[in-house]
Design goal:
The complex is a heterotetramer, with two copies of chain A (about 325 residues) and two copies of chain B (about 325 residues). With about 325 residues, chain A is α/β, with parallel strands linked by helices. Chain A is built from eight helices and 13 strands. Classes of the chains: A alpha/beta (about 325), B alpha/beta (about 325). The complex binds zinc ion (ZN) (2 copies).
């Protein structure tokens, strides 16, 4: 059935520090009409409708497939509550790095007019207003890497959280610092780290959710600094990409090496939270930080009940058309 | 000589030196003055060649110089930078990392906390120093010492020289990413002057983990890079041997960092590189350190922090709306 | 019955209950009222015996009650003490200790950080919980959570129930002493209300490592001891079997701690001990917690700290000059 | 030669938590006239004069024998500079604990009129004025344990350091919390911990030197909390006494288990300092904290050059007769 399936955006980007497994971990293929979707992990053929109702978690093996920013927003925050900001700056190619301008070109044709994989805005989760960030791993085939625009948007989002006294919730997915901006890319680690220092000084709750993949400079900066850190099951969470890791090992790594579960076992993640439970978990967490824990009934219905937008990338920026 | 790399060049210079030596010995033994004249001419030629060669160093030559086996390491400089260094060990959590040394010292009588990444010269020492790859314990020891410095308002000087953070299983297990991230946040907010000096290899997040500072100085032939050139070449061209191209593309030299505003000063090395005169190089570093410390010490802690945050927040190059 | 220990006593009571049950069943089956009368009399006798026995408990009986295999553990109480408990894991340094649980919760809608030492009931759970012996990771997780509470000004409640800190090689290697000491210093200075409740075994420094608090409450049949009675007997008399004598000599009961001014309140248990009514015991704990939290929350952070330091500084009994 | 040697004070005390090796580790025997001393470790027969000139470090095997408080003072601080305080309180037997009153009786007959193993005063080290504390393991056969008087004296010494803005140097040697005072003994851990919190708040340097043995509650409180922690070679430094440890092990301990060197390897001790270097090391350390590092020539001569008092216990309280 070679013609039956169409290719989804490649997940195996060639951004800096994205050294994840050579074989794309989560390539999803679907019938042109979108009737069927094949699980990237176990190969199960799923009804796309069911697959999306399950928030792109394989009903057979539980694999959490990567999401676009819009899918994440639609399936996490209260319907219609997302208000985006941060697209009033634009990326440069400060080093004239090979192929970088081509990627930035790709970004400039983003249907949502976005300037980076990091999407920032305000949103409500279970009625709790927060600054909400999510990294789109697919954006411009840049693997959610941290360039100058990433760092600036992160900082502006944190600043907004401070000035408006809102908690900051961030979904990470990143190959690390953006090689194509050289040292400027590396310095986004310092910049986001400093930004988290300012959040801490202002006692603003900062909550990270690590999704597949959170590696390299991302994990070694903003993604490890949440007051609370959650992670999706099975996500690749590590400093070294798996290829680098394989070369470097003098010690046989465990079976769950460099996954959420491995990091949880070793004390770096507070809780591994299945996708369908993240909204309620965040809602309760935000309520804790807001000053009172809401009972479960006060939060929005479990996100599995929310119908996703038919085409995730077509969802409007403010989420006004998301959900049912 | 155009395509000669630094190692071949040094070989040629060494041969010249051998010849000069022979001529001198023969001239003295035989009491002939023409041998002396020949030797002097060869010496002049050697110095001209060296000057010419060093005037046109390629980025890859800088990589080779920064990694040169004879290049002075932190512990080579420390006796010339400070007096009465007392090395303090351990992170008070798990262990003592040989790849990162630190302690109390004085610079012309003024107490400072000195921290340095440390490579080893012979095999035994290399193993002890983990080839300069810093483990979580190293970053946590560094942070403990920095916090000791902050508590007693002692300035902090770090010497940066690492191929990168240790990517092995044990380091992933013990949170190498967390350790670096944690340092980035804490160093941003230390209420005491901080200066980082890149003395050799400024390897990615592994370097940055002790290099967030009020001032960043770079030795003339040190490098500072978002990813090792070989790693970059692997990702870009699937060919690690194209490191020289990657070194060029990523702009990893001290001059590049200065031009990008990410290094505050370049400390000149003796002709031929720091290994030709470690003590002289140390004197140049010390002069620069004292000048910057004098400037920083004049600031109140809040002015110091305001300046540091302004700097960190300014990292990055992007366009602001309205776009051209 | 004088010399009977708690376990033999419970056996006797269990036999009485069996007898009562038989009488009742027979009475119902045979519709005779005299069996019912007999059963009632036996029940009365049983309650009298229990009351009498519990009125004269020896310190060693308290040890056996505090260690009772059916005694409720932290996780048994937590659902009754708080709502919406979200367990947070890991010390962000090395691992996650099963012998110490903690997280965010709410007590009647008010957010609190809840931390508890945790034993296991079946063999598998006991291994997971390391038999309640807390490792360095446990103390460091506790501190991380306490600092999270302090950062956001949430009160901290700890439930103490451990035979002691883990004395094994791994724990010595990872600084079990440092971890406890560190907590003692940090808990003294936390700028948020803290309450410790000894719910079972208050085992030496292992207990104290999470029990430095504004208020220390003790369940009626909990114990709090400088060293395990068996250990004390070993040292004093080279005879660990003389634990009962040591228990007496060391004054380890809740009443003793109250008399010495080291426990602020004794929380009454149901007749027969907490395991006869975990929910009722939890309600009593919760009532006391809320009363004390209300008092403490009325204080400014500086008044709170002044009060706590006054308390900690006052620990001890000695003569001041001029001596009698 | 049974009559040739006289017994020195036993080092294997029966205080709480002193669970060190059954065979006394450092029993020193000497000719009645004191001509010879036998090394407690290697059995070498040494001239007592040489042995004392070597600060009771065996010239053959390097074993550091335990010292009395007066020996420590004489061999560490500037001659005649020690001014004792803290003997204006007296111990009680709050629990009426078996045999405790007999030990306190022994203490009351102390030739120096001291009230506890912890000796506190002010002193100069290399000209640096400091508050100086030293624990006498031999005092009243109480193994340097922490009772109410210990805690109070520690706190008063720390208070003096705070009010007079002096650094606090403490030599530890302790079996842990004092069992004979029950929970009051345990609470001295909390009290000293709180006291260190107050030192930290006031930014007073607190420097610990761990000597043989520093175990149990001592290591799990004040002894692990120094801004800088030094230790003598080969000292027993651990949470669990060796007997307890042997019972508990599921994992084979390393050869240097529970020694200074073991703790150093694992990151908990800054430096293992031979006895003859401790004065100069402390002097430099204090100079670092005082604001300027003195050159070596400014400090007192190396203590090996100072003749110890002929009979250590006969040294006057203020050290006026100490030294040559
Ligand atoms: Zn699947
Ligand atoms: Zn010896």
């Amino acid at each position: 059935m070679p013609d039956w399936f169409r290719r989804r955006p490649r997940e195996d980007q060639d951004g800096a520090n994205d050294k994840s497994a050579p074989a794309p971990a989560s390539v999803v293929e679907a019938v042109p009409e979108g009737t069927f979707t094949k699980c990237a992990k176990c190969g199960a053929i799923l009804f796309t409708k069911d697959f999306e109702r399950d928030l792109k978690v394989c009903a057979k093996c539980g694999h959490h497939h990567r999401l676009t920013a819009d899918e994440r927003i639609a399936w996490t925050v209260d319907e219609g509550s997302f208000v985006e900001f941060g697209n009033d700056i634009a990326a440069l190619d400060p080093l004239g790095f090979p192929e970088y301008s081509r990627k930035l070109e790709l970004g400039r044709s983003d249907p949502n007019g976005r300037n980076d994989g990091l999407v920032t805005g305000t949103a409500q989760i279970g009625g709790n207003l927060c600054v909400f960030g999510v990294v789109d791993f697919f954006y411009a085939r840049l693997a959610g890497t941290m360039g100058s625009v990433f760092g600036e948007k992160f900082m502006r989002a944190a600043d907004k959280a401070i000035t408006e006294n809102l908690p900051f919730v961030l979904f990470c997915a990143s190959g690390g610092a953006r090689m194509q901006e050289g040292l400027l890319g590396l310095m986004q680690m310092a910049k986001t780290g400093a930004s988290v220092a300012q959040l801490a000084e202002a006692r603003i709750p900062y909550i990270c959710v690590l999704t597949d993949p959170t590696i390299g400079g991302a994990l070694a900066s903003y993604a490890s600094l949440g007051d609370v850190i959650y992670a999706e099951p099975g996500a690749n969470v590590a400093l070294a990409g798996t290829r680098v890791a394989q070369q470097a090992q003098t010690q046989k790594p465990p079976a769950n090496y460099q996954t959420s579960e491995f990091q949880w076992e070793h004390g770096f993640i507070d809780k591994v939270v299945p996708r369908k439970e993240i909204a309620i978990t965040l809602s309760r967490t935000l309520t804790f930080f807001a000053g009172g824990i809401a009972s479960q009934t006060e939060t929005k219905a479990s996100p599995v009940l929310v119908t996703p937008p038919d085409s995730p990338t077509a969802a409007k920026r403010n989420g006004a058309e998301g959900g049912h | 000589m155009e395509d000669m790399n630094i190692l071949e060049f040094e070989q040629a210079i060494a041969e010249l030196n051998l010849e000069i030596g022979k001529l001198r010995t023969a001239a003295q033994r035989e009491r002939r003055s023409d041998g002396e004249v020949q030797a002097n001419a060869l010496e002049k030629r050697r110095d001209e060649l060296t000057t010419q060669f060093f005037a046109r160093l390629e980025p890859w030559d800088e990589v080779l110089l920064a990694r040169h086996k004879d290049r002075p390491y932190s512990l080579d400089y420390i006796p010339f930078l400070t007096e009465d260094f007392i090395e303090l060990h351990g992170d008070r959590l798990f262990g003592d990392d040989g790849a990162l040394v630190g302690g109390m010292a004085a610079m012309s009588g003024d107490p400072v906390i000195l921290i340095g990444q440390q490579k080893g010269r012979d095999l035994k020492e290399r193993q002890k120093r983990n080839f300069g790859y810093v483990r979580p314990e190293g970053y946590r020891k560094a942070l403990r010492l920095m916090q000791l410095g902050e508590k007693f308002r002692r300035p902090i000087v770090t010497l940066v020289d690492t191929p990168g953070a240790d990517p092995n299983v044990g380091s992933e297990e013990r949170g190498i990413s967390e350790a670096i991230a944690h340092n980035l946040r804490e160093m941003a907010a230390l209420r005491t002057p901080t200066i980082a000096v890149i003395i050799g290899e400024g390897g990615s997040g592994g370097a940055l983990g002790i290099a967030v500072a009020d001032r960043v100085l770079m030795l003339e032939h040190s490098i500072y890079s978002v990813i090792a050139p070989e790693g970059c070449a692997s990702i870009l061209w699937r060919d690690p041997s194209r490191g020289p191209d990657a070194a060029k593309a990523m702009r990893i030299t001290a001059k590049d960092a200065k031009r990008l505003g990410l290094a505050d000063e370049i400390v000149t090395e003796p002709l031929g590189g720091a290994h030709h005169d470690p003590e002289g190089t140390a004197a140049a570093i010390r002069e620069a350190l004292q000048r910057h410390l004098n400037e920083l010490s004049a600031l109140s802690p809040s002015a110091l922090l305001a300046q540091r945050f302004a700097k960190l927040r300014g990292f990055g190059q992007f366009l602001s709306a309205p776009f051209a």
